[in-house]
Design a protein that fits this description.
Blueprint: E1 7-10, H1 12-15, H2 25-33, E2 42-46, H3 48-64, H4 68-80, E3 84-86, H5 92-102, H6 106-118, E4 122-124, H7 127-132, E5 140-142
Parallel strand pairs: 1-2, 1-4, 2-3, 4-5
Helix pairs in contact: 3-4, 5-6
């Protein structure tokens, strides 16, 4: 019996963990390992995900002496991931509504709008976002609590 692939939206707070040492590294590895599973995971991102990750790496270069050449390689590796990219232009109206009604950034709201559109959870490491949307209609899950099945589960 064929299983359904893991499906979720991931934000930059999760994606950046592929490259910088932060909490939840085991969960991050388990989640992204599903991109190579059969069937492969469907990890969705709005296209702004890539520039947000770029900005985070830039901050690491400036503030923590993270090597710029390593940051560039990280971005090349990020580009190669089999993430399902959705144009922000498809999400901006919904994102504005979510941002205004929940007092979150339009950037965060873009991820929420995508998750809502696809009817999948948004997985984030942003605890402030989790807390802000805790009593909302949106399914926003903290990476640390998100159930990630074993790649061998059938």
């Amino acid at each position: 019996m064929k299983t359904s692939p893991l499906q979720c939206v991931v934000d930059a707070s999760v994606g950046i963990k592929l490259f910088v040492v932060e909490d939840l590294s085991e969960k991050k590895h388990a989640l992204f390992a599903h991109l190579a599973a059969e069937p492969p995971a469907q990890l969705y991102v709005p296209d702004l995900f890539f520039i947000e990750c770029t900005n985070i790496l830039w901050k690491y270069v400036r503030r923590f002496d993270y090597p710029a050449d390593k940051a560039s390689k990280n971005l090349m590796n990020l580009e190669k991931l089999a993430l399902q990219r959705i144009p922000t232009s498809d999400l901006m109206v919904g994102a504005l509504d979510i941002a205004v009604s929940h007092t979150i950034s339009a950037y965060d709201a873009c991820y929420v709008a995508l998750a809502q559109r696809l009817n999948v959870p948004l997985v984030t490491a942003d605890e402030k976002l989790i807390n802000t949307l805790a009593n909302s209609i949106y399914t926003v899950r903290w990476l640390g609590d998100f159930p990630i099945p074993s790649k061998n589960d059938k």
